[in-house]
Amino acid sequence: MMNEAQVREALGKVIDPALGQDIVTFRVLRGVELSGDDVLVKLDIPTHAYPKPQLRELQLRIEAALKPLGAKRVTVVSDVVTAYQPAPSDKAMLKGARNVIAVAAGKGGVGKSTVAVNLALALVRHGARVGLLDADVFGPSIPTMLGTPETPPSASADSKIIPALHHGMKVISVGFFVDKQEAVVWRGPMVHRLLQQFLGDVEWGELDYLICDLPPGTGDVQLSLSQLIPIAGAVMVTTPQEVSIVDVVKGIAMFEKVEIPILGIVENMSYYKC
Ligand SMILES: Nc1ncnc2c1ncn2[C@@H]1O[C@H](COP(=O)(O)OP(=O)(O)OP(=O)(O)O)[C@@H](O)[C@H]1O
Ligand SMILES: [Mg+2]
Q1: Which residues surround ligand 1 with Cβ inside 6 Å?
Q2: pLDDT digits (tens, 9 = 90+) for 44-88
Q3: Closest ligand 1 atom to the C-alpha of 237?
Q4: Domain containing 67 — which CATH number?
Q5: Which residues span the domain enclosing 33?
Q6: Distance between CA 174 and CA 45 in Å, rounded?
Q7: Nearest CA to 7 among 44, 42, 34, 43?
Q8: Atom 31 of ligand 1 has which residue's CA nearest to it?
Q9: Number of domains in the chain
Q10: Phi and psi for 245 in degrees, rounded to 5?
Q11: CA-to-CA distance for 146 and 134, rounded, in angstroms?
């Protein structure tokens, strides 16, 4: 009769079709339970965006790996547990957010806010718990883009900020609290303090992703954010024009300097459809 060690060894050879790595190394395998010839395999799927057909394929691979050991019935159950790197303690200000993703660009007007909103909404649609932080304190456009919230922001009994709710995601923007004219003249230390508040004094709760919409360029906001919280990665937005690409290269260099990985580059407004 098979034992747990044999089952685990066999599962260690199962390659996850979506991740291209075995399920033990990638910690997709949470546990196994044996009862006679029946095996229960518990998986932690690392992302809500995991493709369904590949999940089915993974189940088939697991069954195929266990049948030679004499397993009669193989049951695979899975939960989505968003993967993340635990934060170093000096950057633990934002405890509940697993992955902070910055959306940035060298230039203004290339579509950062549009990409940030759509990325956040796509993650919500996959079933993830998502927050959207409008870190563009100089020109907040998230409130305009999202329209009237389902629930406006408010204050809790212990003076914390409760974010607005839009389409099932938690949203915070300086645009909710002050008018644009005021925000434009803010200097570095004030920006830093405001971001500190938006991270530490907002009841974000448990989030799989916090998407941050940044102002253009490589200024105070970018620097403050990278100092205050661990950023899992940055998505750069550019348009096909050379002037925009030159600036995005500068932006990438800045993120590399502060050791934030670039997750990808979105070339927005690539062509026109009339
Ligand atoms: N792919 C697209 N097709 C058509 N219009 C777009 C597209 N992407 C963005 N826009 C429009 O272009 C304008 C600028 O986009 P957006 O505000 O997202 O850019 P931004 O980089 O965040 O700008 P800012 O630097 O001012 O923050 C908006 O009016 C937006 O609706
Ligand atoms: Mg913007």
Answers
A1: 105, 108-114, 136, 139, 141, 216, 268-269
A2: 999 999 999 999 999 999 999 999 999 999 999 999 999 887 766
A3: 21
A4: 3.30.300.130
A5: 4-80
A6: 35
A7: 34
A8: 114
A9: 2
A10: -65, -40
A11: 12
